[in-house]
Design brief:
This protein has about 350 residues and is mainly alpha-helical. About 65% of the residues lie in helices and about 5% in strands. The chain is built from 12 helices and 2 strands, in the order ααααααααααααββ. The longest helix has about 40 residues, at about 195-235.
Length: about 350
């Protein structure tokens, strides 16, 4: 399937050619405009779109946030928009790209379709933006987010060699859980923590995250390992440690069938390339399992009262009887002792 997006500007492709040649990213000049458009789009949402919309939708909440919370809010807004867009595009490509459906292991490792590379371009643009934000604000987002951004950018950039271009729409479906994750975070900031809406969203978040990242992601990782191993072991596929490709593409193909193996060349699969891609994939999968555990803790914390809160909620009242004695004089001038009984209600705990 050919790239359905706008054609690449020839001047931009020519300017990108030296960079693509230096890093052996053969098809990057064909999709550099998609990378840059995605980067600019998400930057504009973060800097202008999210603050403008948020002030109007939540005029009594968003303006009261401190600088750190506003940054977090705007980054989550970008993540929400990106995940919704890229998921729709990836599913559409997977359903409509007939050339992709007919690929064997060689096509899945060394093949190329313009539609798959479009997904790579938009995803790389987002992860490039994510890398910049995570690096500048690493004190806020942490080293885990920075590692995720680096690994994701490497994985999707290597697809421009092309290398495992087939798996670009496959692995971007990790993002299916992101809309629910962002909604969960927004609800906290909107003072809806513990609401039914957050409960239902939290349940969906755990189900979708487990399904698309742990089950689907692990299964597809095994498949890509098998395909790359088959490529390295195949007699018809060159496998050397420092194999490089120096040619770059600057013109779009007009034949969807011919473009599939257009950039196969000598069928080179460098060992460093396989190790880098598979290593980054392992990092991403490890982070997914770690984050799943953290999400379970976060959801439980919001719907299970703490010890102090629980103690206050179930505290029982006890009644204590106290007797007091006073000496008084009656009407006949005799001294008598008057005993009074009172009830004091005390709260346990």
């Amino acid at each position: 399937m050919l790239d359905p997006f706008l054609a690449n500007p020839p001047l931009l492709s020519a300017l990108t050619a030296p960079l693509a040649r230096a890093f052996n990213l053969t098809t990057l000049p064909l999709h550099i405009h998609e990378v840059l458009i995605a980067f600019a789009f998400y930057h504009s949402i973060n800097s202008y779109g999210s603050p403008w919309v948020s002030r109007r939708l939540f005029p009594t909440i968003y303006p009261t946030f401190n600088k750190r919370t506003k940054l977090n809010w705007d980054v989550h807004a970008v993540s929400f928009v990106q995940s919704c867009l890229i998921n729709v595009l990836a599913l559409w490509v997977m359903w409509t790209d007939e050339e992709r459906k007919n690929m064997d292991w060689r096509g899945r490792v060394l093949g190329y379709t313009g539609a798959g590379a479009m997904i790579q371009g938009f995803a790389a643009g987002y992860f490039l933006w994510d890398l910049c934000i995570s690096a500048v604000h690493v004190g806020i987002f942490g080293w885990g987010m920075l590692a995720h951004a680096i690994a994701a950018l490497i994985v999707f950039s290597l697809g421009f060699r092309p290398f495992v271009n087939f798996y670009a729409p496959t692995f971007i479906l990790y993002e299916l859980s992101s809309p629910f994750l962002n909604i969960h975070w927004f609800l906290d900031k909107l003072n809806l923590t513990g609401s039914r809406f957050q409960l239902y969203n939290g349940i969906l978040l755990l189900i979708v995250f487990f399904s698309c990242r742990l089950v689907w992601g692990t299964y597809q990782s095994i498949r890509v390992y098998q395909d790359v191993w088959a490529a390295i072991q195949s007699p018809g596929t060159t496998s050397t440690f420092f194999a490089n490709q120096t040619s770059v593409a600057t013109n779009q193909s007009y034949d969807s069938l011919k473009e599939v193996m257009r950039f196969e060349g000598e069928g080179v699969v460098p060992v460093w390339l396989a190790c880098t891609y598979l290593g980054s994939n392992i990092v991403l999968n490890t982070l997914n399992f770690y984050w799943f555990g953290k999400m379970i803790e976060a959801v439980k914390k919001r719907f299970q009262p703490g010890k102090e809160k629980e103690k206050g909620a179930v505290a029982m009242k006890s009644v204590v009887s106290e007797e007091t004695a006073d000496v008084v004089v009656d009407g006949e001038g005799k001294k008598v002792m008057k005993v009074e009984k009172t009830e004091v209600r005390r709260r346990k705990g």
